[in-house]
Amino acid sequence: MNLPQVIEQATLLANEMIAPEIHRMELHAPGISGVAQPGQFVMLGLSGLDPLLRRPFSIHQCTDNSITLLYKVVGKGTTAMAQMGAPQQVSLLGPLGNGFQPALEATHHCLVGGGLGIAPMLFLANHIRKSQPNAGVTILLGGRNKQELLAQEEFAPLGNLQVATDDGSAGLHGFVSELLENIDRKDMHVYTCGPLPMMKVVAEICRKKSWLCQVSLESHMACGMGACLGCAVEKAELRPNEKKYVHVCKDGPVFNASLLWL
Amino acid sequence: MAINLTVAIGDWQLKNPIMTASGTFGYGEEFSPFVKLSELGGIVVKGISLQPRDGNPPPRVVETACGMLNAIGLENVGLAAFIDQKIPMLAKTKADVVVNILGDSIEEYEEITAALDNEDVVKAIEVNISCPNVKKGGVAFGTNADMAAKVTDAVRRKTGKPIIIKLSPNVTDIVEIAKAVEGEGATAISLINTLLGMAIDIETRRPKLANIVGGLSGPAIKPLALRMVYQVASATNLPIIGIGGISSLEDVLEFIIAGATAIQIGTANFVNPALSGELVRGLENYLQNKGLTSVKQLAGSIIT
User: What is the value of ipTM here, to two decimals?
Assistant: First the structure.
């Protein structure tokens, strides 16, 4: 939260459906793209009073002048977003929150994304490739079916890519966590984003194997900047007199798994 | 000609009538990238209780048509940490700070007020009386005229600073409560706090908030808030601070014309964190364009 934050009128460069109900929006937003870190998010606002609040989206891809978001059409806000096209504008507030902290000393990084949680992993994979060209990278993607394995082509050149689907339509017929379980390494740093049950299993595997694990949470939130206190998540009780909740927007969205679930 | 935006709440001279509402502006610092805090009429910080509070379990917020429900549960750092950590930070911003206070008993309100009375950066104290009185069976102070009067009197005796009583709209007759606190020495009245509401997920049939019910805010409540401000302004002689769904310059003007001396921006801070500063400039431009020299020429100017 110490990084500069801006409100930016961002122009749509592209907005296309990439899978059933899943869309990708690219926005010209140099104020945000210039400083954003992997795992950070933006609050996207539309004009008008309904929907009223901005919506949080993790940054999927980041270039010098643009950012890309992935979103699933689920309600009024995302339905309106899906109907927009270049060169319409939206208001972006960001970059917000604490992103992933890629371990500098790690010899191997493992990125585990499930469903729409795949979104922030591409920015992270690109970042690690660029900043640590010699580090090993394994990328594990999971989805209910092969359509949900988003951005596979973009991930493929960035590391050892393995996939799993619930229905067996691509890769392992099973959960992405099983791919993680099968990895036999002593030293590895794991980063994950996806459905909560998946991340809890991933964190538990990491605990057993003594891998450090960073998880990216999502939550309903009104402001994204630590004012509304709406995005509270209960953390593992550690010491007396400690606060019971952390806030996804300003304490996260990326947390060490051990802070949340012991 | 220079435009005079100043207004008064008791002895406190505000630079302009634009304030920010408690619970929507953090402790101010969160908004400093977007608003010069010292340019606002005042900032009202997150409600402070005697002891720190963790707040309610999640989910705590849900959006509804043109508004939102919240059940944050008054999460705050507590009086001691507020004085140690937040007051020095606030002093550096040169903002005019109003501290919103809350308690489970008259004694808690008194103790917090007495502690804040020593702090120069605190220009006024806003008393949240929508909290349950634990010692009296949990009935909210703000829904009973006698209890509202007692809190006002107790707080009044502990400080010479302006006392703003923040009224709950969840009552049959808000004018009765307003008159009761006026009679016990309130300096001003702010209204409205949120309206009790709820939302249900039809797939799971569960309430969308873990607390089941929560406070409704945002543009959805503006007409109701405006009506209450008009009624209270007509029936009392106190300065009124209008709150409720204000999200544009037009909204600000409506409340001032209805009789508000100042207004607070609440939920709209979440939508546009820079809004409060924009409204100060917008109000000045509006007065200039209308050939007015002072915001006081608009206050209570409603024609019925």
Answer: 0.93
